[in-house]
Amino acid sequence: MLEVTGLRVAYGGIQAVRSITFHVGEGETVALIGANGAGKTSTLKALARVLDAVGGDVHFCGEKISRIAPHHIVRKGIALVPEGRGVFPRLSVLENLHMGAFIRHDSAEVERDLQRVFAYFPRLKERAGQLAGTLSGGEQQMLAIGRALMSRPKLLLLDEPSMGLAPIMVQKIFEVVRAVAADGMTILLIEQNAKLALESSQRGYVMESGEITLHGESAQLLDDPKVRAAYLGE
Length: 234
Ligand SMILES: Nc1ncnc2c1ncn2[C@@H]1O[C@H](COP(=O)(O)OP(=O)(O)O)[C@@H](O)[C@H]1O
Ligand SMILES: [Mg+2]
Known about the structure:
Keywords: Amino-acid transport, ATP-binding, Cell membrane, Membrane, Nucleotide-binding, Transport. Helix content is 37%, strand content 26%.
């Protein structure tokens, strides 16, 4: 579904992503793990066209998307849940969710998807009328994922959904990520929490200083001595 070839991202003279190649198949959850500063967010931003890559190609469902306008990305079926969530603080939970469906005109289907999001995250239903800015960090993460799902994407890009959250909340969020995947969603999951990401994915890529240094089946990466030493604190 997603084919990334030789992708490079730079900020002025700083090379953040140095020619990486990876793919995500339809229905897969693929983890991209790595330490802070490895280039994970820059990769995701380039895929979502939030920033311009300086080199490489991105194909999505067979179509080259590496140069399309950023506002076309959602229409192509890619939804980004950014680092730090990016919910609209002065809008209610319900309004935020409807913003996720702004490109859609199938209101009966939108309503059905809204109920599906509420089924994944009952907390959002309880807080539907509350301003998003007054939600806890974990609830905002739920809302950001719910809002992304409201565009009915083919591919969900998640940037560190566990960041800054209490362990119990991280468990809740990941239960839903796995449920969304089990319902057929294709997911590219970016995480510093390597254990959680590898336990929630079929394949994984390890990123270090802008390069992919290891890749394989997630279960094998979890057993890999280098991964264990560098990312699992062993
Ligand atoms: N807006 C920016 N301007 C300059 N350098 C940046 C910017 N964003 C990120 N970087 C640099 O790019 C590298 C990769 O950052 P990032 O993609 O955010 O990594 P990660 O998400 O893996 O923590 C880091 O060295 C970071 O300092
Ligand atoms: Mg990041």
